[in-house]
């Protein structure tokens, strides 16, 4: 999935956290795995491709069906619930992008 196919909120977040530990390419080697969290239920899901394989970056197509509000004819997720936030899982704990960025900044200072 290229940047043009990603939801606007993910593109915006990647721009906001560029160059920090809040993006996959800078935190993956510290065992951060792209994930999403439903803020209402606390449920966390690893980012996955539609076929269920873990994704190396934030992809919404593999989210649980009850998190997806609208899919295109090709199955691509077009809209997700507003309560879903992107972040990362590391050693079983969910980190928001800001928390991941702060964590890595502390590790490298």
Describe this structure in words.
This protein is α+β, with helices and mostly antiparallel strands and 109 residues long. It has one domain (8-108). 23% of the residues lie in helices and 26% in strands. The protein contains 3 helices and 6 strands; from the N terminus they run H-H-E-E-E-E-E-E-H. The protein has helices at residues 8-16, 24-27, 97-108; strands spanning 33-38, 44-46, 68-71, 77-80, 84-90, 93-96. The strands form 2 sheets. The protein has a 4-stranded antiparallel β-sheet. Strands 3-4 form a two-stranded antiparallel ribbon. Strand 3 and strand 4 form a beta hairpin. The longest helix has 12 residues, at 97-108. It is globular. The model has no long low-confidence stretch (mean pLDDT 93).
In short:
It contains three helices and six strands.
Please describe the topology of this protein.
Elements: H1 8-16, H2 24-27, E1 33-38, E2 44-46, E3 68-71, E4 77-80, E5 84-90, E6 93-96, H3 97-108
Antiparallel strand pairs: 1-2, 1-5, 3-4, 5-6
């Amino acid at each position: 999935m290229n940047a043009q196919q990603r939801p606007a909120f993910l593109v915006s977040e990647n721009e906001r956290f560029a160059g920090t530990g809040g993006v996959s390419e800078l935190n993956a080697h510290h065992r951060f795995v792209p994930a999403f969290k439903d803020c209402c239920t606390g449920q966390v899901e690893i980012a996955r491709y539609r076929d269920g394989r873990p994704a190396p970056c934030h992809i919404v197509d593999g989210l649980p069906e009850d998190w997806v509000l609208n899919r295109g004819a090709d199955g691509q997720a077009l809209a997700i619930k507003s309560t879903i936030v992107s972040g990362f899982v590391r050693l079983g704990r969910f980190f928001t992008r800001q928390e991941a960025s702060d964590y890595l900044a502390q590790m490298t200072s």
